[in-house]
Amino acid sequence: MPAQHPIPCILMRGGTSKGPYFKMQDIPQDPEIRARVLLAAMGSPDIRQIDGLGGADTLTSKVAMVGPSSREGVDVDYLFAQVSVDKAIVDTSPSCGNMLSGVGPFAIETGMVPVGGEKTSVVIYDINTQSRIEAVVETPDGAVNYEGDARIDGVPGTAAEIRLNFMDIVGSKTGALLPTGKPMEKIEGIDVTLIDVAVPMMIVRAADVGKAGYESAAELDADRAFFTRMEAMRMEAGRRMGLGDVTGKVVPKMAMLAAPREGGNVAARYFVPHKTHAAFAVTGGLCVSSCVLVPGTVADGLAERPEGDDCTVIIEHPTGLIDVAMTSKPYGNEVEIISGGVVRTARKLMQGNIFVPAATLLPASPAA
């Protein structure tokens, strides 16, 4: 076996994240071998990720694996992996809505999905969350278009719009909108909302945890005592949500809310979970927007709840705004969350082979 093993990939920016996109057939199916391969590809564990494609940040240490789907009404399956920068950990329990932005273009670029006209609809099955998402990709002249006027905060310049319509988003990991049946409860004396829409989350009011809610990501990341406190609460949240011991896992995610002050419906900071997101995750945006719409949550009296069954929730984050289109149906004092959609962009950066040490593909040696 040669010392280096080539794996075809396309390096893409998806939303406010970046990473290699692989065909599933080119990545080992065994979870242990797959983890070794992805760690080698990204250059982890190493805070610089100098020996791989990773960008020394959680937002640029992400991987998408895509393959044709055998599911009825679905075009491709998508498996996301969060590769730790400084630890030998590959986590496939969460999804990533930003990396999802590049799945439709990747599927078209690699011939998995044929062009369908000026715009091509790609129905994606998210293996991580067991949900379906429709990606509407601009394909004039029979190819993916990356140039356009759509702008998303956290990304310089403009690009072609990619519309993501999320279906089956309620209860992504726990099977319920409110896994404990309560819109609000206390953990360590702090009011929290434990909610699961696209991703399980623990959401708090910024003021209740000693923050203004308008801090920059760097300001929050510098307060390690704050993260220690939040992590203890997150451990308990995971247990209550039926996720078990979430030590070393990235779900449930966390967010804190404050009153809007830039024309949005709510100000929020999103944690991934041991670092502050520089902008805002798509899945987190869906979950926080649902928290705004559901009565009795920590968002009550803080967020400006939009009216109507089809509405847009605008979330203020460290680098701007994210608009989340929500469809819901009120039932007395309760709300049913039906679907959510966001506009994202993506760009193909490089296409070729990533080389990993051939030894990473060998089966693990049996224990002595």
Automatic annotation (TrEMBL):
This is 4-oxalomesaconate tautomerase. Keywords: Isomerase. InterPro entries: OMA_tautomer-like (IPR047687), PrpF-like (IPR007400). The keyword Cell inner membrane does not apply. Belongs to the PrpF family. The keyword rRNA-binding does not apply. PANTHER family: ACONITATE ISOMERASE-RELATED (PTHR43709), DUF453 DOMAIN PROTEIN (AFU_ORTHOLOGUE AFUA_6G00360) (PTHR43709:SF2). Pfam families: PrpF. Gene3D superfamilies: Diaminopimelate Epimerase, Chain A, domain 1. The lineage of its organism: Bacteria, Pseudomonadati, Pseudomonadota, Alphaproteobacteria, Hyphomicrobiales. One of its GO terms (molecular function) is isomerase activity.
